[in-house]
Amino acid sequence: MQNLNSFLDKKMIEHLRKKGVHIDPTTVEQDRDKRQHEAEIKATQAYLHQNNLDIFKSSLIGNTESLEQTFDDFNVMNDKQNADLEQAINIANRIANGERHKFVFYGKPGTGKTMLSISILNKLKNKYSCLFVDIAMFIELTKRFNDERAKLQVNSLYKAMSNADVLVIDDLGSESSLQRSAKESSDYNQKILFNIAQCRDGKTTIITTNNSGVNFKKIYNPKLISKLMNTDKSNIIHFDSEDYRRHIN
């Protein structure tokens, strides 16, 4: 194709010369190379954008409509919720500016942890590859040993979790017990979590959980806690306002 373009350029230059118009062949080649380079950049950007959207759409969540939530959907009803919203927006801006950290959102159920983590992903998904994974759903999916479709989805999610620029691991701790009392997570669960933690080195991971640090020590191996959640205190948000969901609709 490049040889054809070069041939056509030469024919065009020769034709214009006969018409009395003189053009520098070097300028023509430079313009052609510039157009080709710009086209390649646009094609690459379009591919990356579509790839980011495909990764986000592969998120594992109970209600897929929730993936559309943004900061504008978070209805602030008190000062604490306003502070939570501002911290989440600040985290999104920090990630957008290139920071890579582990972030932990912890507190009571229904206080906006999941909603704000999804809002962060929606803020970033056009620039970064983003993925949301309900960890209890994922672990249950891995246990469907005789289901070929489940195996394919698990492998696809493992790959996406390894490659995603920003990953939300939602409701960590729910996979160990559905009861209020803390219960030690099984070796199987912890092995899966450790594998995920291993592939997240150097990437941004946001963890939401209903458990405090004290409960985590009862549920998980200390090495897993360190690998998965070791982060600066400024990257930890405690959600302790009233149940946000009671005021929706």
Features of the shown structure:
alpha/beta, 249 residues, five-stranded parallel sheet, elongated, disordered N terminus, Rossmann fold
Structure overview:
With 249 residues, this protein is an alpha/beta fold. It folds into 2 domains: 5-49; 59-246, Rossmann fold, CATH 3.40.50.300. The chain is built from 9 helices and 5 strands. The chain has helices at 2-18, 25-57, 79-96, 113-124, 135-142, 148-163, 187-198, 213-219, 222-229, and strands at 102-107, 130-134, 166-172, 204-209, 236-239. The chain has a 5-stranded parallel sheet. Helix 7 links the parallel strand 3 and strand 4. Helix 1 (2-18) runs antiparallel to helix 2 and helix 3 (79-96) packs parallel to helix 4 (113-124). The N and C termini lie far apart (59 Å). The model is unreliable at 1-5 and 178-182 (pLDDT under 50). Residues 99-243 form the AAA+ ATPase domain. InterPro entries: AAA+_ATPase, ATPase_AAA_core, P-loop_NTPase. This is AAA+ ATPase domain-containing protein. It comes from Companilactobacillus futsaii JCM 17355.
Task: Give me the secondary-structure topology.
Elements: H1 2-18, H2 25-57, H3 79-96, E1 102-107, H4 113-124, E2 130-134, H5 135-142, H6 148-163, E3 166-172, H7 187-198, E4 204-209, H8 213-219, H9 222-229, E5 236-239
Parallel strand pairs: 1-4, 1-5, 2-3, 3-4
Helix pairs in contact: 1-2, 3-4
